[in-house]
Each structure stands twice: as structure tokens, then as C-alpha cells.
Prior knowledge:
Blueprint: H1 2-8, H2 11-27, H3 29-32, H4 36-54, H5 74-89, H6 93-104, H7 109-116, H8 120-136, H9 148-151
Helix pairs in contact: 1-2, 1-4, 2-4, 6-8, 7-8
Amino acid sequence: MRTAYLLTRDHALAEDLLQTALTKAWFAWSRIESDPEPYVRKILVNTFATWWRRKWNGEHAYAEPPEPDPGPGAHDVADQRQDLWTAMGRLPRRQRAVVVLRYVEDLTEAETAHLLGVSVGTVKSQTSKALAKLRIDPALATDTSTTTEDLA
């Protein structure tokens, strides 16, 4: 579900994407039952790409479910996480897929390349471009300047 959400940035679409992927996997279960995870991941990415190309406009949930009350100090982490997801949402589809697979799903460059059907070099270049965009994204900018008063 995490991969689907990070690709779509929408809980309802992520659920639809995951259900579609699992349905497709169910039909191929006899072939993939020994190691279904890579196959399901590939279905997720491919289905997402198909929906994106078709500009899929399925149903959207209008009300977000309430989030549990975080403990003290958790708001900063939640805000940073939200800023990161927002910035990732501004990445092009392929760059977002590479970042999600490499850093969230913790796949190797070779596994990511195989899953996306591209070369390892493409994974490296897309990762580099995505990280460069994230580094300069204003939502992720932090004030690291220090003054002499801060040092005293």
C-alpha cells in the first residue's frame, strides 16, 4: 500500500491501484507463488504508468480520514514528511517511481532497472535528477544560516 500511495499521492487511488495489482497477480498466482513480491511491484508500477498515460479520472475521496493525535514534538516530523511527499509529487512520474523504489522500497539499482524495464544507467541518472530537484525544492529548504549570536 505504501508504494501505491507514494506513486499516486492519493489514498483512494492507491487502494484502487493495489486492488488492481493484486487482482492481476491472483490470475498469475500459479506462476509467481514462489516469489510474488517483485511481480506485484512491477504490476503496480506498470498499472500506475498506464493510468497516468490515460490520465485516469476515477473516483476520488473528498474527505480525508482524521489522523490520530500525535505525541508532543511529532508535528515537526509529520510536517517534514508531508513536505517531502508534496515535493516528491512535483517530480516527473519516472523520477518519482525511481525514488520510491530505491529509497522507500529499498531496491538495488539493478532491481529497480529490471522492474521499470530500463537500464541501470537510466535509474542512476533519474535518481540523480530527482535528488537534485528535491535538494532545491523550496518546501524542503531549511534555514541553516547561523549568526554570531547563535554561536555564543
